[in-house]
Write a structure and sequence with these properties.
It contains eleven helices and seven strands. It is an alpha/beta fold. A seven-stranded parallel beta sheet has the order 3-2-1-4-5-6-7, sandwiched between helices. Helix 4 runs parallel beside helix 5. The longest helix is centred in the middle third of the chain and has 29 residues.
């Protein structure tokens, strides 16, 4: 780990969605490993939790908060330009910003489908486009895409979220092939439902009308998701993984955690679809 800890020295990382959850933990972890961290967030006035954690970790001087709503192209371009002027390079991009919108397809307004795709997919494309010229000119860089088990397996009630993550996965596969000749790595990280506030916010918005024919199934899905989030382990595991990826010279394209998520993806890949779906619905009903 000593070698990994030293590799971030004097390098720069841009992390999006850093006011809480994975983004906050990733920012602190990268700063601890020596990176200059540019912490993007929609509302810089919400940076108090991040900077409190940074002070406690003794890395506040390595973290710079910047206004960055990934759905606003002008803000994204300005943030990347400021990063380039201040630090000269951009070595790591962590596309972490996003949200969870859910509900059953028949009952989710099209406006929410559009908002989900704009945030979790188009926004990430926007940030990636902005950093690529800088990484390409310097001949190096790593783009870490925060996907999800929902980018591999579609769960009932998570149609908008899964669609956005499946889109991110396909985009990342294309991107990895396009930028490899320029010394740029693309990495997908697919966590399960760790207990971060993104899930609590998502659960709060997933409601069915009292007379909905999907109400019973939605309640089962939410119970399963909450149980998974509370038992998946410490979200710091994800931040530690991102730190290892950022500091490594040999990276895989895809990482998945925790172990339960790996087994779910394994079943999805190797079991016949009919068997897997039957197993999945049985598991949801037990919860």
């Amino acid at each position: 780990m000593k070698n990994l800890m030293s590799k971030g020295k004097n390098q720069t990382a841009l992390v999006t969605g850093t006011s809480s959850g994975f983004g906050l933990l990733i920012s602190i972890e990268l700063a601890k490993r020596g990176f200059n961290v540019v912490a993007g967030m929609r509302r810089p006035e919400a940076s108090a939790p991040l900077m409190k954690a940074a002070n406690l970790a003794g890395v506040a001087e390595r973290i710079s908060v910047i206004e960055m709503d990934i759905t606003k192209e002008d803000q994204v371009i300005a943030a990347v330009e400021q990063t380039a002027v201040r630090f000269g390079t951009l070595d790591v991009l962590v596309n972490n910003a996003g949200g969870v919108w859910g509900g059953f397809t028949e009952e989710v307004p099209l406006s929410l489908w559009r908002e989900q795709m704009e945030t979790n997919f188009i926004g990430n494309v926007c940030v990636t486009q902005a950093v690529l010229p800088l990484m390409r000119k310097q001949g190096s860089g790593v783009i870490i895409q925060m996907s999800s088990i929902s980018g591999v397996v579609g769960f009932p009630g998570f149609g908008p979220y899964a669609a956005s993550k499946f889109a991110l996965e396909g985009f990342s596969e294309c991107l990895a092939l396009e930028v490899k000749p320029f010394g740029i790595d693309v990495v997908l990280v697919e966590p399960g439902s760790y207990g971060t506030d993104i899930w609590e916010k998502g659960f709060a918005g997933m409601q069915a009308p009292p007379n909905s024919p999907y109400r019973s199934m939605l309640e089962s899905v939410l119970a399963y998701a909450r149980s998974s989030a509370s038992s998946s382990g410490n979200p710091q595991e994800v931040a530690d993984l991102i730190g290892d990826i950022a500091c490594s010279s040999r990276r895989r394209f895809r990482y998945m955690l925790p172990r339960s998520t790996v087994w779910t993806a394994f079943g999805r890949k190797w079991l016949p679809d009919r068997w897997f779906r039957r197993l999945l619905m049985s598991t949801l009903q037990r919860k």
